Amino acid sequence: xxxxxxxxxxxxxxxxxxxxxxxxxxxxxxxxxxxxxxxxxxxxxxxxxxxxxxxxxxxxxxxxxxxxxxxxxxxxxxxxxxxxxxxxxxxxxxxxxxxxxxxxxxxxxxxxxxxxxxxxxxxxxxxxxxxxxxxxxxxxxxxxxxxxxxxxxxxxxxxxxxxxxxxxxxxxxxxxxxxxxxxx
Length: 184
Fold this sequence. Notes:
Elements: H1 4-9, E1 14-15, H2 19-37, H3 43-53, E2 56-57, E3 62-63, E4 67-69, E5 75-77, E6 82-83, E7 87-90, E8 95-97, E9 102-103, E10 108-110, E11 112-113, H4 118-122, E12 125-128, E13 131-133, E14 138-139, E15 144-145, E16 150-151, E17 156-157, E18 162-163, E19 171-174, E20 179-183
């Protein structure tokens, strides 16, 4: 029999209130709390917690608290990436962040989806679509990246944009929904 966690990891509909997933979420919450409350001078402790919390953390990654995740084990962050205050990485699906990425304050990477139909949504079914952020991307403050989006390398997304569709490499995109305004 397929577990709810296996369904979630496969990108299928699943019930999030499953005991195994609840335990995973509690672990992530406890590690996040350790990360978020570590003293400002204790950057090594924060880094150690990130390595324990996330699937992969590249060399020289910097994340400023507070950080919020669902599970942590679905998130990979490439080398030399900087994530500013207030990031929400809702990792029901995979979140892959490339190397040398700059993420402004209060950015949200949101993989969860829910059925449009009212009955399965009322029954608490959910799913997710992965997010991929290419190398050397800059996401301005308050950017929201929606489920299933890929942002190509070197792309810049202006503050407050809502990225609902894939963005190609080497462009500047702004607005809600985000639209390409020029090539780099």
